[in-house]
Amino acid sequence: MVGIKNNKQAQHTKKVLQENVLQLLQKKSLSSITVTEVCQRAHVNRTTFYRYFEDVYMCVDKIESDFLESLDMPKDISPAKALQKLLEGFYANPQISNLVFIEGETKLLDKMHHAMEQGSKHVEPMNGYQETYIMLGMQGIMKRWVKEGMPETPEELTKIIIRVAFADDLQSLRSSFF
Length: 178
Hints:
By secondary structure, the protein is mainly alpha-helical.
């Protein structure tokens, strides 16, 4: 049906716009990407862009939401399995993983944290400092992994993050710290 936002042509156009935003994010910051630039690359006019998105930030928000939905996290998943599933999603969609680097401009890290929390309701909650420490450490490790071209498999990186988060490799250094 013509004019319906969910028809195949509309779906294709939204996908093309999103792909072009992701391509631009490989080279530029989100705040420097313009609607005009996206439209020129996608070969559509600005009116078409605004039919689907209010601005580039809304387009990125939709990309993030679609990505997290595609992971299909079960409600009773363990934090380790949720992390591995997330890393598998990045591994399969390397362009999306670049969104992890856009701190303060996207909500992907917050959405990832929320998605992982949903699956770990049966886990004893940490205090705020511990949670902040672990989440920022995980984010740093994921960023490094992406920047280095994802040399480890998602399963290997999950094990590394768990080992680091619980300081398994740092206990021997503890005495030299004090």
